Amino acid sequence: MATPGNAVCPDPAYFTHAPLDQDKTAVRLVRILPGLSTTGLIRCELRHAILPSPFNADDNDDYDDREGEETLVWEQQVHEDHDVDMDTRTYCCLSYTWGDPLQEHEIEVNGKLLKVRKSLWNFLFAAGKAFHHVYFWIDALCIDQNNTTERNHQVQQMGDIYRSAKSVLIWLGNDLELESTLCSLSIETGTYGMTAYDALLNDVDGFAGPSTSRIYAHATDTDDEYLPATADPYPLSGDGQFNPFSDATGKVDKLLEKLTGHEYWSRAWVTQEVLLAKRAIIVVGQQTYNLYPLATLFRTAVPHFRDNAFERIIDILIRQMWRRLQPNISAADASGLAHWGVVNLLHRFRDKQCAIRRDRIYSLLALCREGRNLKVDYDVPEAQLLSQVLALRRSSMCFCSVGVVAHALGPWDFTDNAHVGLLVAPFVETHMYACTLSSAVCYSCSNWVPLSWTRKKGVVFCLETACADTQGHIFWEHHQEPEAMASSTLDPHQQNSMHNGGTVHVQVRDNNKSHHLCDQGAGLAIQTSEWTNVYRLQFSIPTLVAMLRKEFATSDRGLNACVCMWPKMNDGVPPAGEGRLRFCTGT
Which residues form the Heterokaryon incompatibility domain (predicted)? Predict the structure, then answer.
């Protein structure tokens, strides 16, 4: 029999997706059929279904998204030749990296050909025998990737799709070294190989770990016996149970470097796929391992946090499981992220990789309440998406929040036709205190400024007075004397431009060098205000991106509602709202 990867079907009829009912929470689910086709191809069946009703209520924050069995409503697939009588059932989601777009194999879906990338093909081939009775939600198969309207619809409800799944399988490929490592851990801790997947899938709780030192496949007890009794967020650190890493502290990095350094963890969509899962199960070749006990094993042996993609996820996962054991915590709050904002999550997971830049944002929406207010749309220009995300925190917008979102959508190309008009259009504005320089030290923050600025006429704006997490200075070099500048009103809308004369320089926090920001004030409008030494500054998007191109050295929660810290002045202080970053009229 020809191998599936090399099989060729003459004159094939290629698979096309039948439309989904976008007025409902409709999805497609796929099942791997047993046996290969007559031409040696992997065979799959694709069906339509409606997500469980509890997930249709967007305003219900208190539902328990981890308990009970949800019921899927199956719909007849309109392009199938026959209808299959199916009982209601649950499904699993597949989480994986798409891989090289040039490496593709053919499979059969509902009897027709479809090309899939090598990574997915490897999973379908490896999982065919063990999982042929399981329905999966797999993005590459279940979303018509060529239909932007459908993609918007499916991505908008991605959180519900992963929340309602019975489990999420994390496919890390066919890595013999990693499979051998996980196999050794499975033998020591009593977890599963792929052939025992049913036992893992049917384990009521799914979060039991090596602290029980039991073979889960033989378990018949209730969930409570398997839940860690300790209130410690790292439940394996002192319970006296067998720990296969107990004699390997200091060597775990080497032992699991294939796992912790896997490219999978740097993928943008992984964050919500793992953290929303009822249970997350790593699959490597023919070996499976429950992620939660593996995470607790790792954190027990490596207690110090290192800022990498793997540890950012598992630390939240461990605390998420701990919070679920605490009384008076609703399921909606159990992740500990519900009250975070989109900007905070973007900063936390700022190094995530994705083929489409805006997916860094869309992949986090389901993790926080704020995210439900942002509509997924792959057609809107990125500048408009920047504005939409910042509008979520309109009352607390500041330079650091703009910088985080701009970094997520970067690198920017302002020569693109989609950005025509942005080069001069005012985007956001704020009032800032200005001072002249008598030395190379800022009057407001007492930090150094470029010495060259002291030899020029102009005024300095300290960015830290407008946003506590933004360090640096703007120097407006102007040929007028400061007294003349203060007595004149500079209209930023003159001739529908942002040209005010003079040159604007910026000093970023990582060095003391001066960088040219904009020529002749283009992209930054400056005008006097009713308050002495306070100016109104209006920034275009390109100017903001250039000024805030560096990442922010602040904590995730430090990005909440930065307030303007007005310096002490003898002539009165503007209202606090005037120091807040605001959208310009018409933005």
Answer: 91-273
